[in-house]
Design a protein that fits this description.
Elements: H1 3-15, E1 29-34, E2 37-43, H2 52-59, E3 70-73, H3 87-93, E4 98-101, H4 113-120, E5 124-127, H5 131-137, H6 139-147, E6 151-158, E7 163-166, H7 168-173, H8 183-195, E8 198-202, H9 203-209, E9 224-228, E10 247-251, E11 264-267, H10 274-284, E12 289-294, H11 296-304, E13 310-315, E14 323-325, E15 332-339, E16 342-348
Parallel strand pairs: 3-4, 4-5, 6-12, 6-13, 8-9, 8-12, 9-10, 10-11
Antiparallel strand pairs: 1-2, 1-3, 7-14, 13-16, 15-16
Helix pairs in contact: 3-4
């Protein structure tokens, strides 16, 4: 790894600090170097705030050094006015002579224009430093821009004998949720929720568990709740319809008199390919990442449609003997690790 790659790796590390807060903007990291010494660093503020380049430049104590400095950034600087002014303008204003960029921005308002603007000002620009690593880092933003859908993460827990939920007779005896995983795995799931922009479940999961679908065992932003409820069976008293968190209900019921205040309703056709419709609705709502928590039928629909990017599967030590089987999935296993008594398998759709 050469020196430029090391500085770009630092950009990626900084960018990770924006995970869960910058969406739908990308989580960019930026480093400024003078005479082989880092003099400024920054990452993207929560959505609507300053970009990484602005924060990095503002962190430099002696601004006179900038005219002889090198700027590294994980994604092409913007060249248009949005929530904030163009970052290219600030780079040019401070006469930073050289910029290394990890990845060209595919957004139609940028798409190479930032690079060309910098070059036109006399700045030396190098693109593609740690490009592969930057693509992985920006996977949510890139999925939204290039595939016109959110980056989709599937999650479920299954028993040692391969069941997601117990048989109905077990639920009848004890209607409270049956926990398959341990406390540490539960906390990890809440951390994951804080990192993604939206979370999705189906009607049966809501009716069976009355979940809150928020972040409780971790500090972070609550994800947007997306509920599949074809016939609006979920009672208004249930947690997911309390309007305390932005909630989108996907339904086939077009009678608006049944809609609750504070909830967004989107009509989809449940008799045709449903997952692509979900992706289209979420794209319309500028949702760049989706955490799918089930149940089995909902998860399998995403798998069968081949519209998923990651799967995170917990296997606990309990057994049910009978019940709802876990989804069937094939993907590239990239990691298996213990979470105390549980086993976590991480797959990607290759």
């Amino acid at each position: 790894m050469n020196i430029h790659e090391k500085y770009m790796l630092r950009c990626i590390q900084l960018g990770e600090k924006g995970l869960g807060t910058t969406a739908p903007n990308p989580m960019v990291g930026c480093v400024i170097v003078h005479n082989d010494k880092i003099i400024g660093e920054g990452f993207t503020n929560p959505y609507g705030g300053a970009h990484a380049e602005v924060n990095a430049i503002n962190s430099v104590k002696d601004k006179k050094l900038l005219s002889n400095a090198v700027l590294y950034v994980s994604l092409e600087p913007c060249s248009h006015f949005g929530k904030t002014p163009p970052c290219t303008n600030l780079i040019i204003e401070h006469k930073i002579p050289e910029v290394f960029i990890g990845l060209q921005d595919p957004h139609d308002k940028v798409a190479g224009r930032g690079i060309e603007k910098l070059k036109a000002s006399g700045c030396k620009v190098t693109v593609g430093v740690l490009e592969k690593e930057c693509r992985v880092h920006h996977k949510r933003f890139l999925s939204f821009q290039e595939k016109k859908r959110p980056y989709i993460i599937l999650k479920w827990a299954e028993t040692a004998d391969g069941f997601m939920a117990p048989a109905s007779k077990m639920r009848a005896k004890n209607p409270t949720p049956f926990w398959i995983t341990n406390t540490y795995s539960k906390q990890l799931v809440h951390k994951w929720r804080s990192e993604e922009q939206a979370i999705l479940v189906g009607t049966n999961t809501v009716l069976a568990d009355n979940p809150k679908l928020n972040v409780r065992n971790w500090e972070g932003k609550h994800p947007i709740r997306v509920i599949m409820d074809k016939d609006l069976k979920v009672p208004s008293s249930f947690h997911v319809l309390n309007a305390k968190i932005k909630t989108i209900v996907l339904t086939q019921t077009d009678d608006s008199s049944k809609y609750l205040n504070g909830i967004d309703y989107e009509l989809i056709d449940f008799s045709s390919e449903i997952v692509q419709q979900i992706c289209s609705v979420l794209f319309k709502h500028s949702i760049t990442s989706l955490f799918v928590e089930g149940g089995s039928k909902t998860l399998q629909a995403f798998i069968d449609s081949n519209l998923w990017d990651e799967a995170r599967i917990f296997k606990g030590t309990t057994t049910f003997t009978s019940g709802i089987p876990s989804p069937k999935i094939s993907g590239k296993l990239i990691e298996t690790k213990p979470i105390i008594s549980d086993t976590l398998s991480l797959l990607i759709n290759d």
